Amino acid sequence: MHVEFSQGMILPSKNSQVLHRPDVDQNNAAFKDAMNDPASDKNKKNINSQSQVGCPILTKNLTMQEVFLTSAEELYTTLIDQQRLEAFTRSSVKVDASRGGAFVLFNGNVTGKFQELISGEKIVMQWRYKSWPDGYHSTATIKLDQKDDCTELVLIQSGIPEEDYDRTKQGWKQYYWASMKQTFCWGTKYF
Fold first, then answer.
1. CA 20 to 30 Å from 123, out of 29, 102, 116, 144?
2. What values do phi and psi take at 47, rounded to 5?
3. Which residue has the higher pLDDT, 30 or 151?
4. Cβ–Cβ < 8 Å for 58, 175
């Protein structure tokens, strides 16, 4: 017996309205905000040491090291390419992989701007959680070192609000490194 797949489906008509996906709309708004973020204006004072009301923010620095069974170039591309980012984050992503370009990850929960991009070697970003004070960013630097059969990644992130240090560290481990290794099979040697 043959059953038509589209049977019972309501298909859009010529005059029907386009429905928007909330996660995509949210990313577009966050991306626009990230592109216009006053924290990136070099003529303004550094607001990373203070919130908007002038209260100091106690911060910590994070250093992590991971090994990936892939080339430095592949790993670099994965960290800046929209399709690859969507694959391992399993979320809607928006990214402009150029110096000064913005990124929005995890449906708007992580945003920032690229400050420096050296293909296969280094990525420097202004990086923030949505819940951090408006305009406040940490600086995340990812260095890649190509070895014979793998790539060593070193993350140095400065200016993480003290109360978010553990969440940030766990987020990198779980949602970046472990997810990339699982998605692209970069964590296990078979032979």
1. 29
2. -95, 5
3. 151
4. no
